[in-house]
Inverse folding.
């Protein structure tokens, strides 16, 4: 993962300059001990005033492929919003976008504060179903699948994405 740390409350101009020059960046990391992973965009907000997007629990190759499609869609004018399902990002399966609350984003993606400073950057979580089309919140989904992809909008919340 590229280091995007920066002290203070102001934006990291060097990272923002790099985003302006090279486009939206993708980051992926995996906790070797737990096997949990996160992948996220950095630059959608800066370049397009669209929420950054995070995906949890995907292997690196798939996470990068999926988020690259999201970036391409946003650059083509597609608007993703919390609570919406979309087709065409993951072949043969819809994905659902959930809202990531500010405090969740700060804990999960400290890189955002490092890069954007005190700016309140919206974040969406891309949630995907299992191979049988079951969502992490479905009662009959495998527990391991549910655990690998916590649906942040539903933590301490009864929000429905159905």
């Amino acid at each position: 993962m590229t280091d995007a740390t920066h002290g203070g409350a102001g934006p990291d101009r060097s990272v923002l300059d790099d985003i302006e020059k090279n486009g939206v960046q993708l980051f992926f990391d995996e906790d070797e001990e737990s096997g949990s992973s996160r992948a996220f965009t950095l630059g959608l907000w800066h370049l397009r005033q669209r929420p950054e997007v995070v995906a949890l629990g995907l292997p690196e190759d798939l996470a990068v492929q999926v988020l690259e499609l999201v970036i391409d869609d946003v650059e083509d004018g597609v608007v993703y919003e919390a609570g919406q399902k979309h087709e065409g990002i993951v072949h043969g399966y819809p994905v659902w976008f959930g809202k990531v609350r500010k405090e969740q984003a700060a804990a999960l993606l400290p890189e955002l504060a490092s890069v954007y400073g005190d700016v309140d950057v919206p974040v969406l979580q891309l949630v995907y179903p299992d191979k049988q089309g079951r969502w992490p919140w479905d009662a009959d989904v495998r527990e391991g699948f549910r655990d690998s992809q916590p649906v942040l909008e539903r933590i301490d919340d009864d929000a429905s994405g159905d």
In short: The chain has one domain: 13-153. Strands lie at 25-30, 37-42, 52-56, 85-90, 93-100, 123-127.
